[in-house]
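Researcher: I'm comparing several assemblies side by side, and this is the next one on my list. It has 765 residues spread over two chains. Same procedure as the others: predict the full complex and return the structure.
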Amino acid sequence: MPEGLEVSALPGGNGVLEVTALTLRRGTQGTEVYAALANRGSIPACSAGFAVELFDRDGKSLAAGIGGLFSHRFYQLTDGTDAIAGCIGPGDRTMAAITDLPPDITLEDVRHLVYRCPYFALDVEPVEGLEIDALMRAVSADGIIYTGMLHNRFEGPIRDPSVTVFSLTAGGRPVGSTTVRASMELQPGASWSFETKVLDTGGAEQAAFPAGSL
Amino acid sequence: MARYMNRRIFLKGLGGAVLAAPFLSSIAEREARAQSATVSSPQRFIVMFTHYGCITNQWFPAKSHGPLTADDLTPTTLAPLAPYADKLLIPRGIRSMNEWTARMTRGQGNDSHTQIVGSFFTCQPVTPNSNDPFSFEPATKFQAQPIGPSLDHVMAQQLSPSGTPLLMNTGGRSDSAQSAVSYSAAETMFSGLNATQAYSGLTGLFEQDAPMSPDTYQSIRGQSIIDLVSDDLSTLERFDMSQADREKLSAWKELLHQTGTVIASAQCTEELGAMLGATQSNAGSAGGGFGSDGLTSQVTDSMDGADVYSSIAALAAACNANPVIFLKYPGNYVFSGLDINTESHSLSHRLDNAGMQGNCLPNAVEMLLRVDDFYTRKFANLVGMLDSIPEGTGSVLDNTATVWFNEMSDGNAHNLNNAPILQAGSAGGYFKTGQIINVDPAGPGAADMSNGASMSACTDGTSGQTINGTTQSTGTEPSVANAPINKYFYNLMNAMGVKAGADGFPAVGGTAEVTHFGYSDRTEDFIGGEGAVADAAIHDPGEFTELKSGS
């Protein structure tokens, strides 16, 4: 993270999610932001996003971007729709990667990062969903590859399952991420053995999050 | 060569071109006619785009069809526009495309903003698609973008010297896929300019100490081509010429009469900019940015930051810098200058966060009305600036379609039917003005169409009531006000001179009227994204004839 970068929540409506660690760096395709957040409130934050805007020392806006916040927990709406949402429960940790910010930003010019977290605060109850286990890392000369198993605990099939793995510093700050996706339908009770591409920003630890389409 | 010729360059050579024309081929005559038409009626399309809807019950006048008077506007949010009632057009009963609903009944299931802004001016679905309104796949919810270009680019490709619109991000803020409305091509977001950048782009057009030809001067004074070249024509008519040439000359004189007055709106000068408030200094002070509410901050005694952006838009219009000008207001904005400390998205949900269910934020509706009033005053000021610049027998405003579009109808319901749309200016006589015109296919011409239900929740000023955005109870009954916005876009494109190919879709080099635009004009066709609905198409081609003058 550039020295002197000030990170703050957009006043007046960020809600229950708070940044606990953040990385701003130059990636291979553009400027990248990785963030870890925690739900400091008492309600689940569902279908949540993490939006940032970067400003220079004069307060001029340099760029804006938005990414989804991943979750381990899944909930069913109680409004009769039976819709399923991924939610960040109270006290839960979540992460986001924004990798499509313009490449022409000079990181040293960025002085302020303002974030906000749109999410649905819904009447929901927890249900079983997607689970990841057996997460392993293999170090090579090019970087790190992650492998593991994704299990579908939903009552219905999941299309196009994906796993996003964040590499973390020893302090838990995300410094990079990689996503692996399968074009398949994962039946209830079935599992998918995944292996990511090489991630060149390997950290001391990792955190993996599942996703997919109902 | 640029298609949009600098007026002064053209006028300086006017006489010669006019007098030579009768003796050129018929093709040259047509070109001359086209040139004259371009100069005599420079149309501009100016858009003010705001987010998160409005309190519809207060925004719309009581009647939904008929003559529009100042008395109709005075009891409404639109009261500041009462002085301009005879120059306004309120098309009622229109729906924009790709509504998000909790049960995915009127559009894709990506996100209640990402898909709306992406589809608003493109009428295209976004990609990647989501069939899950509460998706936990982040790419579909926040990164989805439309599969085609937006209206501003489609128009600018045919009309603008640069081929791109002038897009200004008021407040000096940047957009992401959840707020961007301008796309130069499929999945290609277009970045806007801040005030300083936009103003700097105009200064190159200023003519300082440049000699003005007599023709140019007289044209600015509002004289017609026929006046300017009358002496030459009289001389020519005294020549001994064949009957055929005499007939040609007579026909050419008639053509000049038909093309009418060559109108030069005003001089594109720094002085005009100063009169409007568009100056380098003001632009620098209106930038907005980090931690500041640049929109409402006073820049001069009579102008705030938003007004400065409007003044630059007015100057750009007067200078014919670009015939397609978009003023994009920011999303997720904290109007601290209006004593509102809740960011605008959360406020539109009437909550203290961006959720969709919970206890009402105290005074939420009152604060929303304050935001609506602010936007109305900004639009009124923009209209006033354009109307203050003389052009021919009227004003620059008269030769524009200056339109305030809002992302949605009610901000809590996220409904896209019953769109609050307000137009000022007739685009050179193309549109009716001084009218509210109900084009709703469920009851065209009805004067009692619903104004929505924005006042049905959170109105007591306390947190005692609850609100649930997923039920859309504060919106408008979905069976009414569903005339597709595509048709209004056809009106606007035709008014501006955009041409279509044989299929009716806008096409560079086309010669036909625009009758088609976008993926579909039926919001249900967007369910499932591109290709999911087998007969997704333009089902009702052609513009709203009711909006055209003379109809």
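Model: For your comparison table: The radius of gyration of chain A is 18 Å.
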